[in-house]
Amino acid sequence: THNPNTNTQKPRLQKKPEFQNGCKSLLSKYLTDDVFQQLNGVSDKFGYSLAELINSGVVNQNSSIGVYAGSPDSYSTFAPLLNQIIQEYHGYDPADLHKSDWDVSKCNFEPLDDKYCMSTRIRFARNLADFPLGTKITKEQRRQVESLAKEAFQKFEGELLGTYHSLANMDKQTQKQLIEEHYLFKEGDKYLEAAGLNRDWPDGRGIFINHSKTFLIWVNEEDQFRVISMQKGGDIKAVFGRLSNAHTIINKVAKFAYNDHLGAISTCPTNIGTGLRASIHVKLPLLSKDMETFEKIAEKNHVQIRGIHGEHSESEGGIFDISNKRRIGFSEVELVHDMFNGVKEMIEKEKELE
Ligand code: ADP
Ligand code: CIR
C-alpha cells in the first residue's frame, strides 16, 4: 500500500495535485499551473523534489502553509513557489536583507501582569550548514547531528548547565509528562509525518534540559535545533536575556545554514530568518468569546493565536498562546516587541470586559 509518510516520492508528478474546495493553504494559492510546470521534475542539490516539497500540504489539505524544504538549496531551487509564500507570510521580498539584533538593553517591556500571563517562552530554530534538513537527512546523518550537539552541550556553563535526554532511552511516562508540561515536542504530528520528518522515530531525537528547566534544546524535530528559553509568568526580558546569552555561546560552536537574504535556514518557510517565536500563554476567557475582536487585535499586532498545546491544538481554560507571526524582515528585538504589543493590547481589552 502507498505510504505517504515515507519520502520516496517520484521526482516527477503525473499531474498537478488537486486541492479540495475550501483548501486555504498558501501552497494551494501559489502552486499555479505555470509554477507547477516550471518546477515539476526539478530537484535541489540534495535531490529533494517538488513532490517532496509539497507532499505535506497535498496529504493534509487543512495545512496553513503546506510545504517543507529539503535543504538550504531548496529555497533557491523552488524560489518561484517559496518566494511567494515567504512574501505573503512574512511580508518579505526577494531583494530584502535579513536583520539581527539580540541587544537586551533595547527591550522596552514594562512587566506584564502575571494574573494574565501564565508563562513566557522564546525559541529560535537552527539547522547545520553541512547537512540536508530533517526532511531529507539520512539516519546516519541525523545521528551525526545528535553527536555534534551532545558534544557542544558539554561546554555549557552556569545557568545553561544541564543534561541531554535521548528520546530512544526515555520511558513513555517521562515523555508524556514532559510533553504535558510544555517542555518536549509531541509525537506523531501528521504534517511532519507527510514531510518525512518522522522517519526512523525516535532515533537521533532528544532534548537538552538545564537544571532549572528554563533552558531547553530540542534536537532533530522539525528543525535540527530548537533553542528555547522559558519560565512562569510574564517577565519577557529575563526570558529574552537568557536566550540572547545562549545564542552567543551556541554560535561560537556551530556552523549553521545561513545567508544574508534568508537569515537562518529552516525546514518550514514560516521559520526562516531569525527563526524566533516569542510566546506567552495568556488567560483571556472574555476576549476569546469574541473571536472577531480577538483576531482583529492579533492581525493588527502581527501576532498569531495558538492553542495551549502548540500549533493546531485547542485552548483550555481560556488560555491562548500568543506569538509573533513574522520571523524575518525584523530583528529579534523587534519581533519580541510585536509579541509584547499584541499581548498588552489583548490584556487591556480583557480588563475592559471584566
Ligand atoms: P514551536 O513552534 O515553538 O515549536 P509549538 O506550537 O509546537 O511551538 O509548541 C511547542 C510546545 O511549547 C507546546 O507544548 C506548547 O504548549 C509550548 N509552549 C509554547 N509557548 C509557550 C509558553 N509561552 N509557555 C509555556 N509553554 C509554551
Ligand atoms: C501547516 O502548513 O499548517 C503546517 N505544515 C505547519 C505550518 C507552519 N508551522 C510551523 O510550525 N512551521
Description:
Helix content is 33%, strand content 16%. The chain is an alpha+beta fold and 354 residues long. It has one domain (104-353): Creatine Kinase, Chain A, domain 2 (2-Layer Sandwich). The model is unreliable at 1-6 (pLDDT under 50). Bound molecules: adenosine-5'-diphosphate and citrulline. Residues 56, 63-66, 191, 268, 270-271, 311 line the site of citrulline (CIR).
- Radius of gyration from CA coordinates: 20 Å
Q: Distance N terminus to C terminus?
A: 56 Å
Q: What is the count of distinct domains?
A: 1
Task: Give me the CATH fold name.
Answer: Creatine Kinase, Chain A, domain 2
Question: Strand order of the main beta sheet, please?
Answer: 2-3-4-5-1-8-10-9
CATH superfamily: Glutamine synthetase/guanido kinase, catalytic domain
Report the total helices: 11
Number of strands: 10
Quick structural overview:
The protein is α+β, with helices and mostly antiparallel strands. The chain is built from 11 helices and 10 strands. It has a single domain (104-353), classed as Creatine Kinase, Chain A, domain 2, CATH 3.30.590.10.
